[in-house]
Write a structure and sequence with these properties.
The protein is mainly alpha-helical. It has three helices and two strands. It has one domain (about 5-45, about 65-130). It has a two-stranded antiparallel ribbon with strand order 1-2.
């Protein structure tokens, strides 16, 4: 019997979302800290690309390479500078509106993740009952 990859994928995304929420919360908490540089995490697609079981081979120098070589762990990186606020007088780069928007996005992604797992679990239970 083949293992079900959806639960593993959902677990990885939930872990990634947890790390991202922690980073965003830290950014919000340090919004008034002088010289604090906002942070973010590598995109989940980069984590997926790294964990892909089969990679395409580059057999010709003209072939494109995979530019997102990231470890299995989620990396915290310096966030892109928000063009709306830029660097404040204190040297801080946190934009509260952007961070709150990220927090809402994380919430929506987590809710979608949980709903998909719940639906798939229900589907599996229905197949076992019959």
């Amino acid at each position: 019997m083949q293992p079900i990859q959806l639960f593993d994928l959902a677990s990885r995304q939930a872990s990634w979302l947890s790390v991202r929420q922690e980073v965003v919360s830290t950014n919000i908490a340090n919004a008034n800290t002088p010289k604090y540089v906002a942070k973010d995490v590598t995109p989940f697609s980069a984590v997926l690309d790294q964990s892909a079981p089969v990679r395409m081979a580059r057999t010709n120098p003209g072939h494109m390479t995979d530019a997102s070589q990231v470890s299995d762990d989620v990396d915290v990186v310096k966030a892109k500078l928000d063009q709306e606020i830029g660097v404040q007088e204190s040297g801080n780069t946190v934009g509260l509106a952007e961070e709150l928007s990220k927090s809402g996005e994380i919430k929506r992604q987590y809710e979608l993740n949980a709903a998909l797992v719940k639906s798939f679990h229900r589907m599996m239970l229905l197949t076992v009952r019959k």
